[in-house]
Amino acid sequence: QVQLVESGGGLVQTGGSLRLSCAASGLTFSSNAMGWFRQAPGKEREFVAAVSWSGVMADYADSVKGRFTISRENAKNMVYLQMNSLKPEDTAVYYCAAAPSVSYYREPYEYDYWGQGTQVTVSS
Questions:
Q1: CA 124 to CA 105: how far, in whole Å?
Q2: pLDDT tens for residues 81-116?
Q3: Distance (Å, rounded) from C-alpha 95 to C-alpha 4?
Q4: Is 9 helix (H, G, I), strand (E, B) or coil?
């Protein structure tokens, strides 16, 4: 049974930082591209960042480029999202997802497995 468990969310002031973690189990982690998505109230789920199976290649939404960094540790079955210079518009539930592919994708439908999400709230 595949499980993705996010942690690290919380309340932070504008300009602050948070580091999200996602622990994966029940899958061959190193064979999966990993992504982070977010969903704000009343909005569709949107792509934030993704990383290839090796961790060498990464992709970011324009809205977070230069502020967020995705990384992974295959030996620990972990993926991270370092979020700096947070803005109120970053407020959302953040989800990690796994896609059984060496490449990475921006579209949610490419991902087979999802975590339950962790809330990030940025106050102004």
A1: 32
A2: 999 999 999 999 999 999 998 788 999 999 999 999
A3: 9
A4: coil
